[in-house]
Amino acid sequence: MRALAIDLGKKRVGIAVSDALGITVRPVEVFRRSTDERLIERVKTLVADLEVETVVVGLPLRMDGTQGDPATATLRFVELLSSKLHVTVATQDERLTSYEAEQQMMDLGFDREQRKGRSDEFAAMIILQDYLSVIGSNSEAKKAQSGEE
To answer: Under 8 Å CB-to-CB from 146, ≥6 apart: which residues?
Structure first.
């Protein structure tokens, strides 16, 4: 199952995609955000070009797990996106992904300017990895419950 992840920012949107088996992820692009309509058109193009079956949008919950204004705005966008796409649209908790992305890039030796330019796509990759881990864990649990191996 190929999935596409979106790290939705006010100015920039990071986008990442998985392989067809949902095992590895790679960055696709950082898209400058202007209007939701323009972003949705870009996502529709990527879904078609990359043969994506699921789109995952990072949900910016507060540290205590509650929704603030950014999460509410993201859920409105997810609803709009869902109405325009013919694939599954899901959300994934994105708490601490920006911090984790920053740490990964520092570990890779990126300087400050490189980190600034690529943090959104790294965050999208982390969102996607987290989502794939969750659905992988859920499918393993279902197999165990049904007695499959």
So the answer is: none
Residue 105 sits in a domain of what CATH number? 3.30.420.140
Domain range for 8: 3-146
Quote the radius of gyration of the chain (alpha carbons, Å).
Answer: 16
> Could you please report the per-residue DSSP string of 69-125?
HHHHHHHHHHHHHHHH-SSEEEEEE-TTHHHHHHHHHHHTT--HHHHHHHHHHHHHH
Helices 36-50 and 69-84 pack at an angle, to 10 degrees, of 50
d(CA 122, CA 116): 11
Q: What is the pLDDT along the chain (149 residues), one digit of tens a residue?
A: 899 999 999 899 999 999 999 999 999 999 999 999 999 999 999 999 999 999 999 999 999 989 999 999 999 999 999 999 999 999 999 988 888 888 999 999 999 998 888 889 999 999 999 999 998 866 655 565 666 55
Please tell me the pTM assigned to this model: 0.87
Q: How many domains does the chain have?
A: 1
